[in-house]
Amino acid sequence: MTLARRLERLGTETAFAVALAAADWGSRGNTIYPFHLGDINIPTAPHIVEAMNRAIADGKTGYCPGAGIPELREALAEDIGGQRGIEVDPGNVVVMTGGKPVITKFIQTVMDPGQEVLYPNPGFPIYESQIEYHGGTAVPYRYLPTEDGFRIDLDQVRAAITDRTVAIIYNDLQNPISAESTPEERQAIADLAVEHDLWVLSDEAYFEMRYEGESSSIAALPGMAERTVILYTFSKKFAMTGSRLGCAVAPPEVASVFSTLNTNDESCTTHYVQWAGIEALRGSQQSVSDMLGVLRSRRDATCELVNAIPGMSVEVPRSTFYVFPDVTEAMERVGTADLGDFAEQALHATGVSFCTRRHFGRPVPGEDRHYIRLAYSGIDESAIREGLGRLG
Ligand code: PLP
Predict the structure, then answer these.
(1) Measured between alpha carbons, how far is residue 385 from residues 211, 388, 391 in Å?
(2) What residues does the Aminotransferase class I/classII large domain cover (predicted)?
(3) What is the value of pTM for the model shown?
């Protein structure tokens, strides 16, 4: 017996391996300062949990429609459309088990083997994995550090489009860099998509995780609604990472395929969790603003302490819950040129656990600076201060 050959092309989210290494180090009596996972150590709001319990008690425990219950699709259409200033019909909304399946189903729907998809690198590692697993070529585009933060290298995006390119993945409010596009950059990506007739996956997982300014969706630009799939998730905004609830907003022909794929893959998203989703969207939003307040304070502490460490520097991001410091000089100070070694030394010497640039896509030739990602969503401010103090 053999396993399928295509598994050779399957990647993964290696941040989970960092979590295992940290847990192992912790189990040997060491204090761990967990900056590695984009999970949230703030519980789901009580009114959302109550709605979930009520739904279970009310018997919402059987199968339901593959595209999601109509009440949730309606609430999502209203919320997502309203926040982005676009018209969303409930028929365009397909409920899924989190945001991640939207990536897989998007690739399965728009790409044939041998075709190319552009994706951000460093970026969420599942893009690269799913494109290659499904027989495509994952074509990276990068972000350039500038005086005004990280900017998409638009010249590289332009140069990378070929007659085999079918889609571009765009993640504004970006993981791991926390980069944000200017309106001009967003328009430039939209213009390229229209000019070359490309699909766009707009990964909006962090759309509401913002401390300053306003988020905008590429789907709201002229000519984009018919070619854009929005990835929406309850994971971050409502601290519901383990409940697995999200959706795609897609043009009708794509939404219909997604719904059929859901029926093939999961039958439906967990029925009672969907009722909790309605409460999350329509109930009090106080817990969301409270959480953003806590995260903002953690962000400020993280950036202040990172910038106090000789050889590390970072700008204060306006969104997400990640910082992506340049650690090139700090690595020289501790005498290593290898990011993996640097992270291991940090864990063993101080208990501080983090992912590095290497966990976010294959390194692109020509990169000469080294970066790590610190996620402050899963660690209290007192531990942030203690951990980064030790790291310094
Ligand atoms: N997209 C990005 C950019 C993410 O960072 C994540 C999770 O970390 C996801 C998608 C997937 O989120 P979910 O937990 O909803 O599957």
Answers:
(1) 20, 5, 10
(2) 42-391
(3) 0.97
